[in-house]
Amino acid sequence: MHPTPEQLELAHRLLYRPERLAALAGAGGTGADWLAALRAEDAASDLPSPGALAAQRACCRSLDIRAVPFEAATYPAALRLLREPPPLLFYRGRLPAAAESLLAVVGSRRASAAGLEMARRLGRAAAAAGHPVVSGLARGIDQAAQRGSLELGPSWAVLGCGLDRIYPPEARSLAEALVAAGPLLSEFPPGTPPLPFHFPRRNRLIAALGVGLLVVEAGAASGALHTARESQGLGRELGAVPANPLNPSAAGSNRLLAEGCQLILGPEDLPRLWGEAGAAPAGAGTAPEAWTPERCGREGLLDAERLSARAGWLLTETLARLAEWEREGSIERLAGGRFRLVAVAGEEAGG
Question: What's the CATH code of the domain at 188?
Answer without folding.
Answer: 3.40.50.450
